[in-house]
Design goal:
Blueprint: E1 16-18, E2 29-34, H1 44-57, E3 66-70, H2 74-86, E4 89-95, H3 100-108, E5 112-116, H4 128-138, E6 142-144, H5 152-168, E7 175-179, H6 184-196, E8 201-207, E9 241-245, H7 247-261, H8 267-280, E10 288-293, H9 307-312, E11 341-342, H10 347-357, E12 361-366, E13 369-375, H11 376-385, E14 404-406, H12 411-419, E15 424-429, E16 432-438, H13 439-446
Parallel strand pairs: 2-10, 3-4, 3-6, 4-5, 7-8, 7-10, 8-9, 11-12, 14-15
Antiparallel strand pairs: 1-2, 12-13, 15-16
Length: about 450
């Protein structure tokens, strides 16, 4: 294995991961660019390294200097990471709406953190950008990273993120979706992809309350994206369409992708995924949408992933909707979750299976494909009329297959299927049958029987 000299060598080359569960009903392929796997946990590691390198080359940052920046947290972490290796001091200025997790994280890297009000305009002397400028000017050896107006920001993405996406997708990118705080990611990646495919759609995922998408400026809870002005690092001409997303939709999607796809993300990434799923529905089979996952959800444990905080802010009902998956594992006895018979087995063997497990219905499979069902009452009528059927293959007496329902579906779907007359429902995990649920399973669950 190669040995890396510093953690900075691990920045970039993040993977593309196919989203499989949250994309149901979408013909196109939706891929996530998982920037959470950068060492600092976000896409901002890329620009931090570029900004510092360019400042050193220009003589703007010298040994013993201090990096000052206005940040929502992630750029600060990236800069602190670089500073730790190169021996610089850091001062970061953050709006007061940012999570306590981020503040503690920056201080863990040894940075000084200054908090400013988030309710003021960006040109106010009390805004986090204005305070950062003042501190940089007042600090001996101070260097303002100035991510909102520093061309090193979009350049980092033009040189690294864009080419990575193009190469990893074999040049098959029809749509790119991302949020914009500074706009550097969208600008750099958008320019690169459009140079290689002029028909590639660039979609800005924007919070409600951000003026970037033309909304009226008002407060919102999502961190790190959206603005009430256009940053110098955002090239609006590269954007083909806007998708405006509510805080609630963003946070619920972040939680959903974390639970269903295993990719832990924050609210800004939740915003991007909501926008990507909307826009990708207009693509055809064979086309590809890439959505950028900008930072890890571990920065938001006291917010997005806190049920109490979500409820206090009206983003989560008092009782979370229950999923079919919650019922699995609560069935009584030692019954395996998926008991089935093959279509070519004799009927008498199927009867034996039903007797052994004390069940009145069975799925019928042909290999791994669900093709039918055995139901006690229907089987009794057929065998009573022709006893010789007990020696014939199950395929001769099987009924229609049981309906299928994904494990992430709400239990209302299970209730509707069972109340419509089905004796059982096949639970699937990405179209693979994994369990059988019956009316009694649902009754036991609702009654609190464990």
């Amino acid at each position: 294995m190669p040995v890396h000299e510093t953690i900075l060598e691990l920045i970039g080359n993040t993977p593309l991961v196919r989203l499989r569960r949250v994309t149901r009903g979408i013909k196109a392929t939706v891929l996530a660019k998982v920037e959470t796997l950068n060492p600092g946990g976000s896409v901002k590691d890329r620009i931090a390294m570029q900004i510092v390198a360019d400042a050193e080359n220009a003589g703007l940052l010298q040994a013993g200097g201090t990096i000052v920046e206005a940040t929502a947290g992630n750029t600060g972490v990236g800069l602190a990471l670089v500073a730790a290796i190169k021996g610089y001091r850091c001062i970061f200025v953050m709006p007061d709406k940012m999570s306590e997790d981020k503040i503690r994280l920056l201080r863990a890297y040894g940075a000084d953190v200054v908090i400013t009000p988030s309710s003021v305009a960006h040109d106010s002397p009390d805004s986090y950008t204005s305070v950062a400028k003042r501190l940089a000017a007042e600090t001996p050896g101070g260097f303002l990273a100035n991510q909102f107006y520093n061309n090193s920001n979009p350049d980092a993405h033009y040189r690294t993120t864009g080419p990575e996406i193009w190469e990893q997708s074999d040049g098959k990118v029809d749509m790119f979706v991302a949020g914009a705080g500074t706009g550097g990611t969208l600008t750099g990646v958008g320019r690169y992809l459009k140079e290689h495919n002029p028909h590639c759609q660039i979609v800005l995922a924007d919070p409600e309350g951000s003026t970037l998408s033309g909304d009226h400026a008002r407060p919102y809870k999502v961190e790190g994206i959206g603005q009430d002005y256009i940053p110098g690092t955002l090239d609006m001409s590269v954007i083909d369409r806007f998708e405006r997303v509510t805080d609630k939709d963003a946070f619920l999607m972040a939680r959903r992708v974390t639970r269903e796809e295993g990719i832990m993300m924050g609210g800004s990434s939740g915003t991007a995924v909501v926008a990507a799923l909307r826009a990708a529905r207009e693509l055809e089979a064979g086309q590809t949408c890439v959505v950028l996952i900008s930072d890890t959800g571990r920065n938001y444990m006291t917010k997005v992933f806190s049920d109490d905080w979500m409820k206090e802010n009206g983003f989560l009902e008092a009782t979370m909707p229950t999923r079919v998956a919650d019922i699995l594992g609560l069935k009584h006895g030692n019954l395996p979750p998926m008991v089935a018979v093959q279509a070519d087995q004799p009927v008498h063997q199927a009867v034996q299976v039903m007797r052994e497990h004390g069940i009145s219905q069975l799925p019928v499979m042909k290999g791994s494909e669900l093709i039918g069902s055995l139901i006690e009452s229907a089987l009794m009528n057929q065998v009573f009329s022709d006893i010789s059927l007990t020696g014939k293959p199950v395929a001769h007496v099987m009924s229609e297959p049981f309906p299928m329902l994904d494990r992430q579906a709400p239990i209302e779907g299970l209730y509707q299927a069972l109340s419509a007359g089905s004796q059982a429902v096949i639970v699937t995990d990405i179209d693979v049958p994994i369990a059988v649920l019956t009316k009694m399973d649902l009754i036991n669950f609702l009654a609190g029987v464990r």
